[in-house]
Amino acid sequence: MKIVNIESFPIRVSNNSDKGRKINTKNINTAMLANTELSDKSDSYNNSKNITEPKRHLEIKSMDSYETIVKDMGEYYIDEGSNTSIYSKSHETTVVKIETDTGIIGWGEAQSPVSPNTSATIIKDIVTPLTIGKNIFDVEAIWHKNYAAKRERGHYTGFYIDAICGVDIAIWDAIGKALNMSTAQAMGGIHRNNVPLYNGIGGTIPEEVADQAEWSVGKGYKYLKMHLKEDLEKTIEIVTKVRERVGESIGLMLDVHMGFETFNAIKLGKELEKINLLWLESPSDPIDIPGLCEISRSLDLPIANGEWTRTKYEMREIFEKKAYDISMPDIARTGLTGGKQIATIAELYNIPVSPHVGGGGIVSIAATLQYSMTIPNFLIMEHSEQGHAVKSIILSENFDANNGTYNSPSKPGLGIEIDEKKLEEYKIKPSL
């Protein structure tokens, strides 16, 4: 069953379709709720506490008033408080379509939260010529052939691997459909039919973050992850407030987005140990392996990391040295083939896997669900209740979580149906 066509769709969807992403804050990469439900709840809370301070802003704000914090770059902006990443004002990603000589369609995604045309161009110019004509059941051989083609050019990671992975996911979708089974079954079998999720929250004002936490618990989530980019004292203040609001029965995690050097990451971790968190994520520079080892050795609190690490080759030193306790591969950056390899190696070192789902869209979510069902050392899957409306806008039917859980889809492959008219609607023009 040969691949006869590969097509990429670099798409951009306005976040106005979402429940809200607040960008008048240093935590600009986190979803902030802007729905009537939470706004009403906040008003009620303030009234019950007889608080006279100004109403907290939960609506989407213009960037114009926040030039000292956010540098506007047109479609993109950067947090000048940390300079760790460029962000898009919209949801951006690259959806991949493959077609076989039997008419089977497979869908994939190359995570491209910034510059989706870059991934699309690599797929068109490099990956497609190396992949057209191959049998879909040679999926692992296809991955390795594409990877090896760049060995002398040094592109072992980044956009090039993202492009390979977008095609890899699409092939696995086609394999499941060809066999009339889920991709998880095709990859080796199902370990679980129900996949627990945690919801992401964030902000700068303790009460606002606690509001989001309470809202999430009301939606059925038993696990929450805070995205914070504050100093040590403010971080502890926010985490403490959230813990007070939701109680001890809710599992809490914290992602500080590489915000601390080794010494202060350890200092932060010591304080967090008193608050009973499940993990501290991305405490420092992810390429500083010695520093991560020192943080992990110094804390009883588990360290989670790995969303930027795309291949088993990059993971070798990390696993050997136990640089962190929980591995977080992002399937739109590793592909299903690479993600399975990472999970297998992690199992050898007794390291659990909690797959990251960041800037990717609905195909990434569906692929990550299949991945979560098929690996034995799975822990919990990331999700964004707030961002799901935007991410799933290209679907022809709903693909929603329920009460903080995803159930095994009933359809073969990844279990989703893409609306190609929507893809064309949101497809962006080439940059050049």
Task: Describe the protein in words.
The structure is a single chain. The chain has 432 residues and is of the alpha/beta class. It has a domain at 194-419: Enolase-like C-terminal domain (TIM Barrel, Alpha-Beta Barrel), CATH 3.20.20.120. Helix content is 38%, strand content 17%. It contains 14 helices and 14 strands. The chain has helices at 36-48, 116-131, 139-148, 159-179, 183-186, 206-218, 232-246, 262-272, 289-298, 312-321, 331-348, 362-374, 388-391, 420-426; strands at residues 3-14, 70-73, 76-79, 86-88, 90-100, 105-110, 194-202, 223-227, 251-255, 279-281, 303-305, 326-327, 381-383, 405-407. Strands 7, 8, 9, 10, 11, 12, 13 and 14 form an 8-stranded mixed beta sheet that branches. The chain has a 3-stranded antiparallel beta sheet with strand order 1-5-6, sandwiched between helices. Helix 8 (262-272) runs parallel beside helix 9 (289-298). Residues 17-68 have low confidence and may be disordered.
Strand fraction: 15-25%
The CATH architecture assignment of one domain turns out to be Alpha-Beta Barrel
Give the CATH superfamily of one domain.
Enolase-like C-terminal domain
Q: Can you write the helix and strand succession as a string?
A: EHEEEEEHHHHEHEHEHEHEHEHHEHEH
The description of the largest β-sheet is:
8 strands, mixed
Portion of residues within helices: 25-40%
Computed over alpha carbons, the radius of gyration is 21 Å
Uncertain regions spanning at least 5 consecutive residues: 17-68
Secondary-structure-based class equals alpha/beta
CATH class of one domain, named Alpha Beta
Shape: globular
Quaternary structure of the protein = single chain
Mean pLDDT: 87
